[in-house]
Specification:
The chain has about 575 residues and is an alpha/beta fold. Helix 1 (about 45-50) packs across helix 8, helix 7 (about 260-265) crosses helix 8 and helix 9 (about 325-340) crosses helix 10. Strands 3-2-1-4-7-16-15-14-10-8-9 form an eleven-stranded mixed sheet, with helices on both faces. A six-stranded mixed sheet has the order 18-29-27-21-24-23, covered by helices on one side. It has 13 helices and 29 strands. The chain starts with a strand and ends with a strand.
């Protein structure tokens, strides 16, 4: 089941007011429209907060201002209802309309309080998430690192003209590797570093980052360095966020715009990006520039999840972190992601907050992380929930090849004769067969949906197949897809029937079909190869696309290593 959400859509209202549309999906029967004035917060106190020097008095004053402006009695009452109805921690999602973003980007929502305590640390709140409201399905699913090894890239830029106040990256690399060893994952967690610290490396230019992203696919990128805001050439347009890279042979910084970075990630995706915001405040000049640098980093993080980018989650910082705070956050984040709540980015951010708050509540470093996300599913890295298997570079090669062919198939007009599509379909069948054969040789049990080619508006049948042999008394999971697709029906397949498993299906959540199968007596039975279930899905009638299908959240009793593999529904041009 999808995580429950308390969603607040913030849209333009009448005059100088905002309209809040509140609902609690999978949580409580809450549906309401509220009004608020545009927020008005003291600029000097916001700058003090961004600089990382927020005193207890100032922090509490700011928290009261934000809470009093947003919650008031009506929204506070709805939150109380959600907390009372919750049976598991839920996320709070803010979805501002683009027209009101300039008025809300500086509001520190992470300081909100419910009663006397911070909302972001409430035991029933898994995270505060900022996202956008999508009005159409993505044309192409982003390529993601979808199996072991788990790869981390640490990028440290430290241009000399900005004061040289970025902490070193090598100690962070060592901490990540130490966590991997402690989790028994030393062989399948890889950490690469781009840094010029100690004179040991070349300048960390933007071209160096681009070359590294071409060299390998990464799950997580951690950026240690400066951001900034840069004015654009058009009057009336807000400034754009930039990251400041080093320049070869120069002491001056090279500003790279957020849209350039987003475009790079579109072609070479990294699912999770952390802009750490850990800077030492050396001189008074540096301290004066910190508020602008933090606004720039936050602006870049926000921009990365908009449009068709390969970034699914971007964590920016509202204010500067001291080096020790950043280390605590990143260490707790990685430990949670690899071991405590494998693959769950929101819980990893929560773990980082808790660790920082446990050390000190003021300055409020625990409130600095801002989680922007494009995807709504957790865990994002579902393969971290399974035992590592021997890594085969051919798997990644085949996945990249499949995605390229999916896209090409979607660009062929449906009116073309069927034989024009035969070669691409044959190529996909060949690649999938090779992948399945390699998995079979390793003795893996694989659960995967078959590929479907259809037209806009069709109702298609997707078959979820099992390869291998399992002895189980229970099997459950979900087939996930774009929310624009409507599930119509689901029924057990031949493999479930032959094993004598009873199957139950849930179609009530957008973007997924949940399945649960169990043996009548609770005794283990042998589940052979073949179809687990079939699902009927109705496609949107407007946009041609490649719609990703994923079998995820797999669980069995007894607990066994199961591998889910993704596939697609390819909808060609009209």
């Amino acid at each position: 089941m999808r995580n429950p959400e308390f969603v607040v859509d913030i849209e333009p209202g009448g005059g100088s007011r905002l309209r809040l549309c509140v609902h609690a999906r999978n949580l409580a029967p809450i549906e309401d429209e509220l009004e608020r004035p545009f927020p008005s917060l003291p600029p000097a106190e916001l700058d003090e907060l961004r600089s990382g020097y927020g005193s207890e008095q100032m922090t509490e004053s700011m928290a009261d201002l934000v809470t009093g402006w947003l919650l008031q009695n009506d929204l506070r009452g709805h939150l109380g209802t959600a907390v009372n109805a919750a049976t598991q921690p839920f996320r709070i999602v803010f979805r501002p309309h683009p027209a009101v973003l300039p008025h809300l980007s500086d509001v520190p929502f992470e300081l909100l309080k419910l009663g006397a305590d911070p909302l972001a640390l409430h035991p029933w709140v898994r995270g505060i998430v900022h996202t956008q409201k999508r009005h159409r399905a993505a044309a192409t699913p982003p390529t993601m690192r979808w199996g072991w090894p788990f790869r981390v890239l640490i990028v440290r830029t430290n241009p000399k003209d900005l004061g040289g106040c970025v902490p070193p990256a090598l100690p962070l690399r060592d901490r990540v590797l130490s966590i991997a060893r402690a989790c028994g994952l030393a062989e399948v967690v890889e950490v690469a570093v781009l840094t010029s610290e100690g004179g040991a490396g070349r300048p960390v230019t933007y071209d160096a980052l681009r070359a590294e992203l071409r060299n390998a696919s990464y799950n997580l990128l951690v950026y240690l360095g400066h951001g900034d805001l840069q004015d654009v050439a058009f009057e009336g347009f807000p400034p754009i966020g930039v990251l400041l890279f080093e320049l070869d042979g120069s002491e001056f910084a090279n500003p790279i715009r957020a849209d350039q970075i987003r475009s790079e990630f579109m072609n070479r995706p990294v699912p999770v990006v952390v802009l750490a915001g850990c800077l030492t405040a050396g001189s008074e000049v540096v301290r004066e520039r910190l508020p602008q640098w933090m606004r720039g980093s936050q602006s870049v993080a926000h921009a990365l999840i908009h449009g068709e980018s390969g970034v699914q989650c971007a964590i920016g910082m509202r204010h500067r972190l001291e080096t020790t705070d950043a280390e605590r956050f990143l260490q707790a984040f990685v430990l949670s992601l690899l071991k405590q709540s494998p693959g769950d980015v929101e819980r990893a951010v929560r773990a980082g907050r808790e660790e920082m708050f446990a050390q000190k509540p003021y300055p409020p470093s625990w409130s600095a992380p801002v989680l922007f996300r494009a995807a709504g599913m957790e865990p994002l890295f579902d393969f971290l929930c399974t035992a590592p298997t021997t890594y085969d570079p051919l798997d990644e090669h085949d996945q990249e090849l499949r995605e390229k062919v999916w896209k090409k198939l979607s660009e062929l007009p449906a009116s073309l004769p069927p034989e024009t599509r035969q070669f691409s379909s044959f190529l996909l069948d060949t690649v999938e067969s090779a992948f399945l054969d390699r998995r079979r040789q390793r003795g893996a049990s694989l659960v995967w949906p078959t590929r479907v080619e259809a037209k806009p508006g069709d109702t298609v049948q997707v078959s979820v197949q099992h390869m291998g042999s399992l002895t189980v008394s229970r099997l459950e999971g979900r087939l996930s897809f774009a929310e624009a697709i409507a599930p119509r029906a689901a029924r057990p397949g031949a493999a479930l029937k032959a094993a004598g498993l009873r199957a139950y299906f849930a179609l009530d959540q957008p973007g997924e079909v949940r399945f649960f199968a169990s043996s009548p007596a609770g005794e283990p039975v042998t589940l052979g190869a073949g179809s687990l279930f079939e699902a009927d899905l109705t496609l949107p009638g407007v946009f041609p696309a490649v719609y990703e299908l994923r079998v995820d959240a797999l669980a069995s009793d007894p607990r066994l290593f199961l591998c889910g593999w993704n596939n697609t529904i390819v909808v060609p041009l009209p």
